[in-house]
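Chain A, query sequence.
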Amino acid sequence: MDSTLDYLKKQLDSETQSPALVALPQDFYSRLAAYSRKLKRSGGPGSSDLVLRLVAVQTTLIESMCRDLLSIRSAKARDQKAFLQLLPEERYVFTARRRFDRRFDAFVEALTSGQPSFIDHARKSESERSVTVRFSRQVNELVGLDLKHYGPFEPEDVASLPASNADILISAGDAVEIFTREEA
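Chain A, predicted structure.
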């Protein structure tokens, strides 16, 4: 059990100390996920309070170290233009981050270079964006910001709504956002 945590810590330390990306085994993240699944199952129903606390501590350590490792590796890949040296799973995450960085930079460039048409485009794109939600409680019919009628909804119903309306329902606890595999 400790060997997996030690192994993860060793990989994190190596990555932190090396100026270049450190080669990780192809099954690195699969092994971590399998260990985490095994760990969660060990803290199942009927487990003692001590076991549950140990599982929670180990889960927190794994999450923290994985976040740090991914952050360090993605920063190195970006700075060194070494995208192809990342594992496929890391490229999956890094691609979304690069897309965000490009959009962020384009927005700031539009602001500083005086391109109100880009800002209008961003506003229009966001106002037309929809979000898929699953309702956690009953919600009466509502009128979306697009002036269309939605609902009524029962718990567990799924619907695609204008993002602004979905955000209100999510923040009120009436619904939770559902992500497709492509969005996650």
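The domain at 2-82 is CATH 1.20.58.1030 (Methane Monooxygenase Hydroxylase; Chain G, domain 1). The CA atoms of residues 76 and 82 lie 7 Å apart.
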